[in-house]
Amino acid sequence: MSEEMTIESYLAEGGKLTSPANVPPRYRAELLKLMATFVDSELAGAAGFADTINAGPGIKERIAAAKIVLEKTDNAGKVLKLMGEFGADTDRYVNHHPWTARLDRDADIGASRSEHDMRLAVFNYPLQGWADAVMMNLLMGLAVNEQLAEFQTVSYQPLAEAFRAIAPIEARHAELGREGAAKLADQGRSDDLQTSADYWWPRVAQSFGGTDPRRSEALQAMGLRKMPTGDLRERWERNAAKVLEELGLARP
Amino acid sequence: MARFHDLHVTDVKKTIRDAVVVTLKPANGAAGEFDFIQGQYLTFRREFDGEELRRSYSICAGKDDGILQVGIKRVEGGAFSTWANTDLKPGDTLQAMPPMGGFHTALDPRAERHYLGFAGGSGITPVLSILKTTLAREPRSRFTLVYANTGVNSIMFREELEDLKNLYMGRLNVIHVLETDAQEIELFTGLVTAEKCAQLFQHWIDIEDVDTAFICGPEPMMLGIASALRAHGMTDSQIKFELFASAQPGRARRKAVAADAASSANQTTATITLDGATQTLTMPKDRSVLDAALENAMDAPFACKAGVCSTCRCRVLEGEVEMAANHALEDYEVAKGYVLSCQSYPLTDKLVVDYDQ
User: Fold this and answer.
1) Do residue B220 and residue A5 have CB atoms under 8 angstroms apart?
2) Which label site among A155, B102, B156, B215 has the fewest CB atoms less than 10 Å from its CB?
């Protein structure tokens, strides 16, 4: 059992790392970025959605919205716990930033992040009413499904396992979005839904990130990414367009 | 953040020539903190020549053994493992963090499962904990262990495994694969590679019947076994890995000392290495190292920018910085020169930092 192998070639061949003790520095940085992006997006998403609970038109809708807020916060906690094993101060982390803060609805920030947290750009835009929240949750939920399918295979095993536990819960959130949208469409709110779909589509599309091939390659070599971001985005576009069509809406 | 606790050493026993099993008893009422899950590890700390080293070792005891035990194999040139094998004795006190790690699956007393464990050398320690606990707590489950070693003399827990086979008659199967010592069956000689696994799956192990596989060993062995398991239809969620201590760096290097004293000028020449590329830039002393790197189009890692998450950690090789806040790095990391670059402001006219260390 005296074979020698570098961590880099081990990772390039699909090896898994299992604890903070055996991650190399650059891997550690990318991994923490990935985890922070997820945690910040979940915390910001939950915080933004909390305000829409009261906008729900009925008891069922309010329960669905409250469930989403509860479970997204819980999912953030699952990954934040792993960040804690790398030294992050988890109590302070939750309070270091006002997660409800949003920009203007028509601010155009592209895919850029804010100065102080790593939430995906899409979570910097405010929700406007119930139908808008439902559509954002649906389109983003479908995007999260694609991302999590990918992230369940990351080379840091504790994170892959956390994502395997999280994926079905997030998939259910997208499903709740689809049910909510179907109900609104039945009630004749298709115009509102289409307006929101047009607004959120490009913003959600940008959440898949840049297509810098050098960066993609580096992340692939570390086992932190498999598919190019462009492919993931296209898969989402096809799937989301189908869902919109079933609701009687047009692909923006 | 996890804290260190004192543990009394109650027994140190040699298993093979260069490995010891250390029995520990938590001191000062910390027993509750050390209620481990099978397959977890403990992280120890100890000073060597004025420098703190941390090393993780897996618990080898089962949940029902009623004791806390870790196995420590001596690694060539390893300060901690050599010390544990030569100087550690009953009556000593060690310091460790509470058990960590996710190398386990939930047990169910009603379950009737077949588990498959692969261990390479001292990678047996967490697998032993898992197999003992599983056989005791899932009375209808079976466990097959493929155990790779250089030769007969280097097999840790050889007798204990024989005893367990007798205790759990028919439920524990152990296949020893030895690299150098010839065995009656040729298949059991050599390294455990993907090909060897495929052969084992033909006649010796009913792979379609296996619910969960545990693998702990050196990197090439883990890769080979994992690819064989996948090729035989197992999914990632059925395969649990624990990469053992070989990836831990040997002896920590000394902290860089300040090359020049602070001066009155408020500009610093900073040399920053990231992803193997080095840039030298001039930056004001009231700017953080992270911001200076970002402004110069370097893709430096960060997340919270509040000194909380540790994503932006880098190492100061020359010169000095002052950290405005630090909620993430521990004293031993700071002692080695690690800083949070989002909170670090230069104190010296020359600064050399590296994100790749």
Assistant:
1) yes
2) B102
